[in-house]
Design a protein that fits this description.
Mean pLDDT: 93
Distance between the termini: 33 Å
Radius of gyration: 25 Å
Structural class: alpha/beta
Number of helices: 19
Helix content: 25-40%
Strand order of the largest sheet: 3-2-4-5-6
Number of strands: 19
Low-confidence stretches: none
Largest sheet: 5 strands, parallel
Length: 582
């Protein structure tokens, strides 16, 4: 899908030249790379060393998190008394990896028959702790629920659990409301009274800190926790939390584990994703592994994802992975069709709103893919977007996505009196309302957006680190650039601009609909070997390029693996056509 809006290239403020030059000399790197470090707030040799050489010793003491001791004490009591424990998590990647991580760990300290896990049904129960899940715990004789990636708003649900004789330990990372649930322990680094040094852990990350704390108390060597990090990096990447600070350390070692010794379920997904073993990246998780795990909860049940992630033998892992992969293929087919319908609604004026915000509704759309469709509409029209469908009799539900610089959560919260429930954060949210409230909600949401949004916010921006000449992209330059990984929010893959480049004549359109460009680019001196480049959804530039005209490109640099051979590849984010210079 070719974006309908034009994008602005914003070159970031460059680092202080004196500092950039000094750091380049101290470390022995290209000034372009030194500038990248300074732009990331790294200003000394020691800070650079920590950035390039993450170490597990850099992880924070888990007991710095409020309620951690209470959580550990309650689990110790449950283990000593041989209580049954229910591990409860959301149906997305963060929730299912967190459940798998906690389940696998607790199996090492208490008999498996005393453990069970529960993933709520996306359509029947919705997000978060549910009454049905608590009733399940009661039926199974569980006296402790460990809630992962959810629970911070479950005030009534925790009270209900207590009335059934069930204690709850909450491990969440979402923003709390004014009051907290009366749980035995509420672990959430975003609590106002929590001064944990890093507050952007994912739900699985909070669960891991609980495991780390329990292991410390019980004298379990940290090395025994390292095999869990492949699950944690999948969560960090898929949940789009910041890859800085503690998350950078966890992601670094998680990627190492995922590439060297992935668990059987993840290896099965890697195989089905046609990824190169030993070369899996954060992007591969975001675009290949994560969506497949998510598809289980979207199309069938999130419990299937946990079964995959806890699979003990290759045959079971392959069987479940194939089933999940089929779910993902079905999901892709459905979301492509719904996206097509939604774009047509906006283009023909048959949507609810399209001026400052995009709101589309169709009662027959699949609830499991509306979040994906909302993201696609943001790409196309670059407006805060809500995609809604019929949820249950008399109810409408959906997902919302935002654009950079606009607080979507605040906009939805301004209409909270019209909603049955809602949750999320600045750039993504879910919501449910009664049908009769829909028209008023749409009017007020659009009104709020119109007052709060600006023309600058409505202009999509590609942030660029610096200009770069092709002759600077040497093997040494790229080898050092790779050490900036893992990339993600807070540490994005560096983006460069190179001006006046040409295709060498081998460029072509590729993809099932010929919507992408595969180019071989040269700049100035054709004596340099051409650089391979891929430009997704930008085939409308092909005629200009094929005619031998120059272009300016905005891109990141990646390593492309094909049949065991690695090559540098430019991942073009945007193209600006130029008239022939000669």
């Amino acid at each position: 899908m070719t974006p309908i809006v034009d994008r602005k290239w914003n070159v970031k403020e460059q680092g202080n030249p004196v500092l950039v030059r000094q750091l380049a000399q101290e470390i022995g790197i290209d000034p372009v790379l030194s500038n990248l470090l300074v732009q990331r707030g790294i200003k000394s040799y020691e800070e650079a060393r920590e950035f390039f050489r993450p170490d597990l010793s850099m992880l924070h003491d888990p007991f710095l998190m409020v309620d951690m001791q209470r959580a550990v004490d309650r689990i110790e009591l449950a283990v000593s008394r041989k209580e049954k424990i229910l591990i409860y998590g959301d149906y997305d990647v963060d929730g299912t990896t967190a459940v798998a991580l906690m389940y696998i760990f607790l199996k090492s300290v208490t008999p498996e028959y005393l453990l069970d896990y529960y993933i709520p049904d996306r359509y029947d129960e919705g997000y978060g702790v549910s009454y049905k899940g608590i009733d399940y715990a009661r039926k199974k004789g569980c006296s402790l629920i460990i809630a992962l990636d959810c629970g911070i708003k479950a005030i009534e649900k925790v009270e209900y659990a207590a009335s059934k004789g069930i204690d709850v330990v909450i491990c969440d990372h979402h923003l709390p409301e004014e009051g907290l649930p009366a749980a035995v322990a509420v672990l959430d680094p975003k609590r106002e009274d929590c001064h944990y040094p890093f507050d952007d852990l994912c739900g699985c990350g909070v669960g891991f800190k609980l495991v780390q704390a329990y292991a410390q108390v019980e004298g379990i060597p940290f090395e025994e926790l390292v095999p869990l990090l492949d699950l944690l990096v999948v969560s960090i990447a898929s949940d789009l939390v910041s890859v800085r600070g503690e998350n950078r350390v966890l992601a670094h070692f998680g990627l190492r584990r995922l590439n060297e010794q992935p668990r059987k379920g993840l290896q099965a997904i890697i195989n089905l994703s046609n990824l190169e073993s030993n070369h899996v990246t954060i992007d591969d998780i975001v675009f290949k592994i994560g969506p497949r795990i998510n598809a289980a909860g979207r199309m069938e049940t999130g419990r299937l994802a946990v079964e995959l992630l806890t699979a003990q033998d290759d045959a079971a892992a392959a069987r479940i992975a194939t089933q999940i992969n089929d779910n993902n293929n079905e999901r892709k087919s459905i979301d492509r069709e719904i996206t097509r319908e939604a774009i047509e609604m906006v283009m023909t004026g048959n949507c609810i709103s399209s001026e400052n915000a995009t709101i589309v509704y169709n009662p027959s759309w699949n609830k499991g893919v509306v979040g994906i469709v909302a993201s696609r509409l943001v790409e196309a029209f670059y407006r805060p977007t809500i995609v809604l469908t019929k949820s249950a009799e008399g109810f409408i539900a959906g997902s919302a996505r935002s654009v950079a610089g606009f607080d979507l959560y605040e906009a939805i919260e301004s209409c909270s009196d019209l909603l049955e429930n809602f949750g999320g954060h600045t750039y993504a949210a879910g919501l449910t309302m009664k049908e009769e409230k829909f028209a008023e909600f749409s009017r007020r949401f659009e009104e709020h957006v119109a007052k709060a949004i600006t023309d600058d916010i409505l202009t999509p921006i590609i942030n660029v680190d610096s200009y770069l000449e092709f002759n600077q992209i040497t093997p040494k330059f790229f080898r050092l650039l790779k050490q900036f990984q893992p990339f993600g929010p807070g540490n994005p893959s560096p983006v460069f601009i190179t001006e006046n480049v040409y295709d060498n004549g081998n460029g072509r359109c590729v993809g099932s609909d010929n919507g992408h460009l595969k180019l071989e680019l040269i700049q100035n001196d054709s004596a340099y070997l051409p650089l391979s480049a891929i430009a997704f959804n930008q085939s409308d530039h092909f005629a200009h390029i094929q005619a031998g005209n120059p272009i300016d490109i905005c891109y990141s640099i990646a390593e492309n693996y094909y049949r065991g051979i690695a090559n540098i590849q430019l991942r073009i984010k945007d193209i600006k056509d130029k008239e022939d210079l000669f």
